[in-house]
Amino acid sequence: MSNGPRIWEHVDGLAERFVELSDKVWETPELNYQEYRSSDEHLRMLREQGFRVETGLAGMPTAIMGEAGTGNPVIAFLGEFDALPELSQEAGATEHRPLAGNGPGHGCGHNLLGAGAMLAATAVKDWLAANNLPGRVRYYGCPAEEGGAGKAFMVRDGVFADVDAAISWHPFAFAGVMQPAALAYAILDFSFAGRSAHAAGSPHLGRSALDAVELMSVGVNYLREHIPTDCRIHYAYLNAGGPAPNIVQAAAVVRYIVRSPRAAEVLMLIERVKRVADGAALMSETQVEPRLVCAMNSLLGNHALEEAMARNFEILGPPVFDEEDEAFARQIQQTLTKEHVLSAYAMFGLEPGNTALCDRIVHPGLGGKQMLGSTDVGDVSWAIPTVQAYGAAHAIGTPLHTWQVTTQGKSSYAHKGMVHVSKVMAATAADLLSSSDLLAEAKKEHASRLARDPVVRLLPPDLPPPLGG
To answer: Among 144, 211, 391, 460, which is least packed, fewest CB within 10 Å?
Structure first.
């Protein structure tokens, strides 16, 4: 069963406008919860394409939704458009060439992600209308995936309550169904308060908040030896106490990320890290105030949806690139190491190939070693059946969150990879809309998984989205 060849024509007919949307978003990179221009461009496109729109979802000004069609079921496409700090880059440059000021840049390809998801949603809208079929399609423009957990707040506040299934994707080097593997995580800020003093004349009167942060770092480093090997703890200084070493630092703030494949374990690790912070405050005679910034869950897979998407990938085949695409991708590979390229193949248990761009459909989980990051799509996957795709938009070996991703963001092959994966997503949605059996199977599996492994809520009901950072 596949509606692929029929709906692909709708994708091809719309592709040029959504390539333009992707490039516009690339040109105005914005950080978590500040994606006003990007959100406005997506909103403008939704209206232009005839969607009914809603804005300000879950109290987030840049969260938007467009809906088309009537009746049920409701299939959602998840889009993103946030960028990353200090990853600006001249498009198409094959060396690190940040733009003036080295501001944000689309170093994770979210300019493509949002446009590609909306392209698929629009194609499904047109396909429903052309075939006079019941059902609704929605595009959700979701802010702040990069450390802001926008979708987690949307799930908590019931934004997806009446959705039957969700589809998304992420730019990558290969094309195929994404393995549902991600780490649950929480972000916490630890603010230490001490007492300033003259560091030479009266050091005994001071209580250093910076000392407390450094003591906490030592303690957490020892803690890492005694946590499960698949857990992760990272940190960054938000405020190191100021630039003057001759003043005892009265205030300092450090941000920690705690990750685990198991949400319950994240809650346990949070408490252990908090106890380390308490110990650091005790040793330095300071006070500490922890604050949960946001959190997101792991991914819950759905074999029924993954198999349906895999069938559409096999019918469509790999994306088609030309010699110019390949030449530019090889130049990008020259900026990487051999290890980068080999690791990309190893993720999928593949032998290295002879091309710099994807020439096959990959099948995750067949002997490969997946890269485990975190995504707020995880929270959606615990609420409703969810499936994600990889789209081939980068040279093989390109690591995410790098200037190399930014420089490829407006390339011909990035556009082709986006359109290619949009066809697969649109066809998968069409299968769900035209087959009550497939949707019923996906829902039954989702309910069965939740019965065996109930969802663990990481976000408190009263925690507001961190709109101010």
So the answer is: 460
CB 183 within 8 A of CB 259: yes
Q: What angle do CA 258, 86, 81 make, to 5 degrees?
A: 75
Asked if 258 and 153 count as a contact pair (C-beta separation under 8 A), the reply is: no
Q: At what angle do helices 209-223 and 263-284 cross, to 10 degrees?
A: 140
Task: For residue 215, give both structure tokens.
Answer: 């003591």
In degrees rounded to 5, what are phi and psi of residue 162? -105, 15
**What confidence tens digit (pLDDT) does each residue in 359-394 have?**
999 987 666 667 788 999 999 999 999 999 999 999
Residue pair 296/32 in contact (Cβ under 8 Å)? The answer is no
Pairing state of beta strands 165-172 and 74-80?
parallel
| pLDDT(330) > 90 | yes
Burial class (CB in 10 A: 0-12, 13-18, 19+), 66: buried
The number of C-alpha atoms within 13 Å of 259 and in the hemisphere containing its C-beta is: 19
Q: Which sign does the torsion angle of CA 454, 292, 373, 92 carry?
A: positive
Beta bridge partners of 256: 188, 235
Q: How many CB atoms lie within 10 A of CB 104?
A: 23
For 97, 387, 405, the CA distances from 26, given in Å and listed in that order, are 16, 25, 11
Q: Is the peptide bond before 73 cis (omega within 30 degrees of 0)?
A: yes
- DSSP label at residue 203: G
CA-wise closest residue to 428 among 160, 75, 164? 75
- How many CA atoms within 13 Å lie on the side-chain side of 212? 34
Q: How far apart are CA 353 and CA 392, in angstroms?
A: 15
Residue 96, token pair as written in the block:
């690190």
Predicted TM-score (pTM) of this structure? 0.95
At residue 374, what is the residue type?
S
Q: What is the pLDDT of residue 368?
A: 62
